[in-house]
Amino acid sequence: MSQLLLDLLEEKQVENNKMLSTFYTISFMTGVNIKYKSSFKDPIKLVNLFLISVSLVGLCAQYCLVWNKRKEPFVESADAICTANQAWISIFKLIYLVFVQHEFYELLHTAINGSLLYDLDIFDLAINCKQFLLKEIKGILDSSWRHIKYQLNFFTFSCTMACGFYMFSCIAANYYYTHIQPQNFTLQLPMPALFPMWHDYGMTWPYYPIQYFIAGIENYICGMCAVCFDGIFIVIVVHCAALFEILHMLLEHATDNDIPQSERVEYLLCCARLHVRIYNYYAKINGMYKNPSLAQCLLSMLVLCVVMFMANIGLEEDITLFLKMLCFLCAAGLQIAIYCYNGQKIITQSEKSPSAWYNCSWYSESKQFKYIIDMMIMRTNRTLYLQVSGFTTMSHMTLLSIVQTSGSYFLLLKNLNGMD
After folding, report:
1. d(Cα 110, Cα 112) in Å, to the nearest integer?
2. In this predicted model, what pLDDT tens digit does every residue of 196-210 receive, in sequence order?
3. Strand, helix or coil at 387?
4. 239, HSE (Cβ side, Cα atoms, 13 Å)
5. Is 359 exposed, middle or buried (0-12, 13-18, 19+ CB in 10 A)?
6. Which residues is 388 bridged to in the sheet?
7. Which residues pair with 393 in a beta bridge?
8. Phi and psi dihedrals of 302, rounded to 5?
9. With contact defined as beta carbons under 8 Å apart, do 353 and 279 qualify?
10. What is the pLDDT of residues 52-72, one digit of tens each?
11. How far apart are CA 128 and CA 122, in angstroms?
């Protein structure tokens, strides 16, 4: 491999690790040490197990609340149902990460260090455009990592905002109704929950702190596990799309005058080998997220429906509830939007592949050059999709369908609640 390319990738690796420092910290605090390759017996997994166990206790308390209010209007338990579903999503993701952390590590660090480009032998050929190609590759990688940075920062902010509002709004409400304007009220927790054995103790020590801790842990994993699991998806999928862009750029210059006639077949073979590596990388991503994405889609659809319903109720009756649901809508809606928006990137780039192979001036090249072009056009003629367990794909159309379906169920809930 050319020293020029190696220096570029090493420089990008340092920059990428620095940019992901906060992401590494969040993943570590959820019991997933994604920065390093760890075994199943890694002690950090105990943190993961602790968070899952405490969250399951919190879920039991939430279902106690739902059962206790089963004879009351749906609005009384909708918040608990909504947040419980989000907690289930996070618990499933944490359990999944326990068993396949090493595979996620490989996918993530392949993107960080750009290792799929290590064997790009193009820079070892006797061509005159190495500096130009290197500059183009750097521009594509810089652009992709800017998109990764923006998405990660915004998603982390949204999840932190939602978790923070749930965590601290209950303390403010309890303090207000206890000390500033004393009155009878229902004790609030970071997640809507009911602990029957401690319900009558109010804010007495240590009963309320214990309840707050359990509900707070559940609230914590709802946000931070989403950042960890979906953050990995953002990095690897955007990088995969960038690799396709690099391949298409290289093909665009396959017949330039700066590439001698004697080197063009080998140049094209390098591009073909790069395509194989990119395809294998895509296949690993698809395999890792194929089944978890189905649960994400179904539960996100339900969450969005209930959140829209509660936000509508809150806007009319309780501004605090409306703000809480608005934060939750932003975080929960972004989860499925991340899958569909970035999945569309893969679709868009793979659709360009046949044209990228065909559009170079192959008609004036050797028979071997033309044969490689023919084979690669046939190989790339099928569009690549990130699948949702075989039912649908991660795309803009899927996102639109989920929003439409959630809206339909929202109207149904609204009508059943007698709001019209």
Report:
1. 6
2. 888 777 777 888 889
3. strand
4. 26
5. middle
6. 392
7. 387
8. -65, -45
9. no
10. 999 999 999 999 988 888 888
11. 11
